[in-house]
């Protein structure tokens, strides 16, 4: 597999850690920012809402951009957002910074998956996507426990600084290893996509996914 594919994996790892690591830091955040644990927990919900709203909007706005530029731009936003989280003086600031960071989530995975399939032969496309999403799995299994340990020993801000560093590494690797687009990205028809989402089989599939993840995150949090 090409090294550029592992650059996407590194980006997926960083974004996955950012999404999940706050779950282990709620007590520290609530104490330092003088909010209830329930209010601190809304930092998870706020991020989720940002992912849901940001993915379709950013994907539509960047549809005609070269995919490498999109990935690099998203990683820059990711770095700025996590640095802002680490510096947050108030709860509102932290929520806004989490919201900014969340905007990169869905679009990165969507565009990254397309780039991943373009890096390999047709018969290896599924494997390429699987390798990229290994970064998300590693974030859940390794990154989050380490981020929680770091936050509990050195303060929750240290966890966000660590994720910012991961983002800087991922940005460097993406800029160096991911090749420029060979062809102009196809313009997507958002209206056709919206019609497809409204089909009964798609809605049932989405409902299954939503219920499954809702159960996982309720327990995880």
Automatic annotation (TrEMBL):
InterPro entries: MFS, MFS_dom, MFS_Efflux_Transporters, MFS_trans_sf. The keyword Transmembrane helix applies. It is a multi-pass membrane protein. It comes from the Bacteria. Pfam families: MFS_1 (PF07690). Residues 4-221 form the Major facilitator superfamily (MFS) profile domain. The keyword Aminoacyl-tRNA synthetase does not apply. It is found in: Cell membrane. The chain crosses the membrane at residues 7-29, 35-58, 70-91, 103-121, 128-146, 158-178. This is Inner membrane transport protein YdhP. The gene is ydhP.
